[in-house]
UniProtKB/TrEMBL annotation:
<keyword id="KW-0813">Transport</keyword>
<feature type="transmembrane region" description="Helical">
    <location>
        <begin position="211"/>
        <end position="229"/>
    </location>
</feature>
<feature type="transmembrane region" description="Helical">
    <location>
        <begin position="250"/>
        <end position="271"/>
    </location>
</feature>
<feature type="transmembrane region" description="Helical">
    <location>
        <begin position="29"/>
        <end position="46"/>
    </location>
</feature>
<feature type="domain" description="Amino acid permease/ SLC12A">
    <location>
        <begin position="28"/>
        <end position="440"/>
    </location>
</feature>
<dbReference type="GO" id="GO:0055085">
    <property type="term" value="P:transmembrane transport"/>
</dbReference>
<dbReference type="Pfam" id="PF00324">
    <property type="entry name" value="AA_permease"/>
</dbReference>
<feature type="transmembrane region" description="Helical">
    <location>
        <begin position="371"/>
        <end position="392"/>
    </location>
</feature>
<keyword id="KW-0812">Transmembrane</keyword>
<feature type="transmembrane region" description="Helical">
    <location>
        <begin position="96"/>
        <end position="116"/>
    </location>
</feature>
<feature type="transmembrane region" description="Helical">
    <location>
        <begin position="136"/>
        <end position="155"/>
    </location>
</feature>
<feature type="transmembrane region" description="Helical">
    <location>
        <begin position="413"/>
        <end position="435"/>
    </location>
</feature>
<feature type="compositionally biased region" description="Basic and acidic residues">
    <location>
        <begin position="1"/>
        <end position="10"/>
    </location>
</feature>
<protein>
    <submittedName>
        <fullName>GABA permease</fullName>
    </submittedName>
</protein>
<feature type="transmembrane region" description="Helical">
    <location>
        <begin position="298"/>
        <end position="324"/>
    </location>
</feature>
<feature type="transmembrane region" description="Helical">
    <location>
        <begin position="167"/>
        <end position="191"/>
    </location>
</feature>
<dbReference type="InterPro" id="IPR004841">
    <property type="entry name" value="AA-permease/SLC12A_dom"/>
</dbReference>
Length: 481
């Protein structure tokens, strides 16, 4: 029998590890949840929505924020019951069907994997502007490789990097809110921006209600990222407690950071200020100029650089965990669930998820980024598809659990009416996008992509590719009474 022990040890050594080790702390998740919805879309991209709708853009941000708050509440209910690194993809699989989990999981992976390339491009352009001796693609490659290394390490390293990236963004917004509030109260000593003049001087809704609706459709894309914390919480010591805490805090995060900062901007800056729609300036740059802050462009570029690195870091983490979850469920090749023995990181998923970023670097070097822009259009309405999947999953899962008499620790408000309201609003938004036309291509391209993925999922299911045992027990929450 003694001879069997070395052989057994060799077999264990040759067996791939497929378990995540975890290691995210509460402060990591807290900061990730705060900064999850803060990206370059707030610092720069929001200027286009302000120019479109005028000061009434505040209504668009409030509307989009309400949708995200409700979606996060529904997701929180499911995530507290069953913490899983696949999050809403896993819940769609269990509540709606394998095809739904397969489709939304791969759509979500495509979104984050493709977004990494765009974030690397922006980071490369900013760094090249500061230090032109190296081409932009060289900086993009440096950022990609550096953050790839971070994600190869234990998840604690990702948490630490994201903590400090997020802290910079949060401090920047808080300082802006303080300075803007002083200016609104006529207490700011520098610059020409004081008071509330621009909120109504040119009309609160200068371009009419249609412009506000179009802005609302654009604003919905800005909030994606809030759901990342439900993915990350599965690698923490107490997933349920962390999800409840962060899901409840999403209300004040959106109100303070998005609605609050946009409100200050439209009060201090005329909605038709030329810089708002210029990619080299953007929302915060124009506002800081109005406040008389020196070197506003440099400050904003630093904040945006931090934001895109943070977004890249989160995107790589989220995409790799989604691949891991898909592989565990048999909806991706099993090699993608292999994790490092010491780190517990799904390094194969990390490598595969970074391929679009390296493709973007190559396109930058060969002046072919226009091709990447076309690929990005297919991500345009993935956020709405994700929210729709969350709503349908929560509706069906809650109904089944209620039929069993299961008591849930964390619940969606006014079920099922608010869930139905979210479903109706999202479908109405998608229809409006097609009819109105501004975002028609995004809806069409994303729908085509979703259709292709659905077809792939059906083929995989029919031929038993990656088949796995399933059962109604999967719908029972952990520790349910």
């Amino acid at each position: 029998m003694a001879l069997a022990h070395p052989e057994r040890r060799r077999q264990l050594a040759n067996t791939p590890n497929t378990e995540l080790k975890g290691g995210l702390k509460s402060r990591h998740l807290t900061m990730m949840s705060i900064a999850g919805v803060i990206g370059a879309a707030l610092f720069v991209g929001s200027g286009k929505q302000i120019a479109l709708a005028g000061p009434a853009v505040i209504l668009a941000y409030i509307g989009g924020g309400i949708l995200v708050i409700l979606a996060m509440r529904m997701l929180g209910e499911m995530a507290v019951a069953q913490p899983d690194t696949g999050s809403f993809s896993t819940y769609a699989d269990r509540a709606i069907g394998r095809w739904a989990g397969f489709t939304i999981g791969w759509l979500y992976w495509y979104f984050w994997a493709l977004l990494m390339g765009w974030e690397a491009y922006v980071a490369g352009q900013i760094l090249h502007g500061w230090f032109p001796m190296v081409p932009a693609w060289g900086y993009a490659l440096l950022v990609t490789v550096s953050l790839l290394i971070v994600n190869f390490l234990n998840v604690r390293n990702y948490g630490e990097f994201e903590f400090w990236f997020a802290l910079i963004k949060v401090v920047a917004i808080v300082l802006f809110l303080v300075m803007g509030s002083l200016a609104l109260a006529h207490l700011w000593p520098w610059g020409a921006a004081n008071g509330w003049d621009h909120l109504t001087s040119q009309g609160f809704m200068p371009n009419g209600p249609k412009a506000v609706v179009v802005a609302l459709l654009g604003v919905m894309f800005a909030f994606i990222g809030a759901e990342i914390v439900t993915v990350a919480a599965a690698e923490s010591a107490d997933p349920g407690r962390e999800i409840i805490k962060t899901t409840r805090s999403v209300v004040w995060r959106i109100c303070l950071f998005y609605v609050g900062s946009i409100f200050i901007v439209v009060c201090l800056v005329p909605y038709n200020a030329p810089g708002l729609t210029q990619p080299t300036q953007g929302t915060y740059n124009v506002a800081l100029d109005a406040l008389g802050i020196p070197h506003a462009q440099l400050i904003v570029n630093f904040i945006v650089l931090t934001s895109v690195c943070s977004c890249f870091n989160s995107a790589l983490y989220t995409a790799s965990r989604m691949l891991y979850s898909l592989a565990r469920r048999g909806d991706a090749h099993r090699v993608m669930q292999i994790t490092g023995r010491k780190t517990g990181t799904p390094y194969v998923g990390v490598i595969i998820s970074s391929l679009f970023a390296f493709a973007a670097v190559w396109m930058m070097a060969t002046s072919k980024m226009d091709v990447y822009d076309v690929l990005m259009q297919a991500t345009g309405t993935i956020a709405l598809f994700v929210y729709l999947a969350i709503a349908f999953s929560q509706l069906r899962m809650r109904q089944r659990l209620q039929a069993r008499g299961v008591r849930l620790e964390f619940r969606m408000w006014l079920f099922p009416w608010l869930t139905y309201a979210v479903i109706v609003c999202i479908i109405a938004a998608l229809v409006t996008m097609v009819i109105e036309g501004t975002y028609r291509n995004e809806v069409v391209y994303t729908s085509i992509l979703a259709g292709v993925i659905v077809a792939m999922g059906i083929v995989a299911q029919v031929f038993g590719i990656g088949a796995r045992a399933r059962g109604e027990a999967e719908l029972a929450p952990a520790g349910a009474e």
